């Protein structure tokens, strides 16, 4: 994929709360620390679509929104406040990793022909 | 999850893509390119028909469920101030191994009836222990 590796974040609690407000998704696992801990998590987690939106934002920053035709994302690990997300190009799209190397999402992309170098 | 839900329409509505919505989304992204990205990734799934529409429509037990994947097919970005029509349907419900999968699709069309974008959300629910 013809994009440069870049970072997004660190993700923070205010950002998660702002995203919850923007999409009206107040699932307590995203906004209620006590609920998240009772569920066995170390803290609240970012919405999966926020993680994907940040990955897509890294692509939009380099290629523009018109370059994107489709995205198919698989979420594989939660993102916590404080996590810096590394957006790494792959053959099929981008991979989102934490600083530890944990892959949190894999995003297959279809780009417009001009953006894909075709 | 309710495997009989496949093909069911969960909600249908006209929605205003307000400038305020896009500004809120831009603020949540918090990047220089956020305003452009925001036109691609608004989600109304939680608001169309009420907060529990998707959960109830799939017959999902949230205590055993998580978000497994997302898909976007874009025809064009959303435009601030436009009204779009959205139809939310259950595309598939199936069991694989010890998990159930539910795929919900939201199709957004513009005032001319043309598709703006198609979003799919895949939920994964662990099968309840006997």
Written account of the structure:
The complex is a heterodimer of chains A (118) and B (130). Chain A is built from 4 helices and 5 strands. With 118 residues, chain A is an alpha+beta fold. Chain A has one domain (6-111): Roll (Thiol Ester Dehydrase, Chain A). Chain A has a 5-stranded antiparallel β-sheet with strand order 1-3-4-5-2, with helices on one face. The longest helix of chain A is centred in the middle third of the chain and has 16 residues, at 48-63. Chain B has one domain (3-126): Hotdog Thioesterase (Thiol Ester Dehydrase, Chain A). Chain B has 3 helices and 5 strands, in the order E-H-H-H-E-E-E-E. Chain B has helices spanning 19-29, 34-38, 53-58; strands at residues 9-16, 65-74, 83-96, 99-109, 115-126. The model of chain B has no long low-confidence stretch (mean pLDDT 89). The interface between A and B is medium-sized, with 32 and 34 residues. Strand 2 (68-75) of chain A pairs antiparallel with strand 2 (65-74) of chain B.
What keywords describe this structure?
heterodimer, A: alpha+beta, Thiol Ester Dehydrase, Chain A, 4 helices, 31% helix, elongated, B: alpha+beta
Secondary structure layout plus pairing:
The complex is a heterodimer of chains A (118) and B (130).
Chain A: E1 6-8, H1 13-23, H2 28-31, H3 33-38, H4 48-63, E2 68-75, E3 85-89, E4 93-97, E5 103-111
Antiparallel strand pairs in A: 1-3, 2-5, 3-4, 4-5
Chain B: E1 9-16, H1 19-29, H2 34-38, H3 53-58, E2 65-74, E3 83-96, E4 99-109, E5 115-126
Antiparallel strand pairs in B: 1-3, 2-5, 3-4, 4-5
Specify the CATH architecture of chain A.
Roll
Number of DSSP strand runs of chain B:
5
Number of domains of chain B: 1
Mean pLDDT of chain A: 93
Largest sheet of chain B: 5 strands, antiparallel
Tell me, what's the shape of chain A?
Answer: elongated
Number of domains of chain A: 1
The number of helical segments of chain A is 4
- Summarize model confidence as the mean pLDDT of chain B: 89
């Amino acid at each position: 994929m013809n994009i440069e590796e870049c970072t997004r974040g660190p993700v923070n609690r205010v950002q998660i709360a702002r995203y919850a407000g923007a999409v009206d998704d107040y699932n307590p696992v995203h906004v209620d620390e006590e609920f998240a801990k009772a569920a066995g998590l170390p803290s609240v987690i970012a919405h999966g679509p926020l993680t994907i939106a940040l990955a897509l934002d890294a692509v939009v920053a380099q290629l523009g929104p018109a370059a994107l035709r489709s995205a198919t994302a698989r979420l594989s690990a939660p993102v916590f406040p404080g996590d810096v997300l590394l957006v790494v190009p792959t053959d099929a799209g981008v991979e989102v990793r934490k600083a530890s190397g944990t892959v949190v999402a894999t995003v297959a992309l279809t780009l417009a022909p001009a953006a894909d170098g075709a | 999850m309710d495997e009989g839900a496949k093909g069911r329409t969960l909600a249908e509505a006209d929605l205003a893509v307000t400038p305020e919505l896009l500004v809120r989304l831009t603020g949540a992204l918090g990047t220089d390119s956020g305003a452009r990205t925001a036109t691609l990734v608004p989600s109304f799934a939680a608001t169309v028909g009420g907060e529990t529409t998707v959960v109830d429509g799939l017959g999902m037990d949230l205590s055993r469920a998580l978000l497994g994947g997302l898909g976007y097919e874009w025809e064009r970005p959303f435009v601030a101030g436009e009204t779009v029509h959205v139809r939310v349907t259950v595309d598939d419900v199936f069991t694989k191994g010890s998990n159930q999968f539910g795929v919900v699709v939201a199709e957004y069309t513009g005032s001319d009836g043309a598709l703006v974008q198609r979003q799919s959300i895949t939920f994964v629910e662990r099968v309840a222990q006997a």
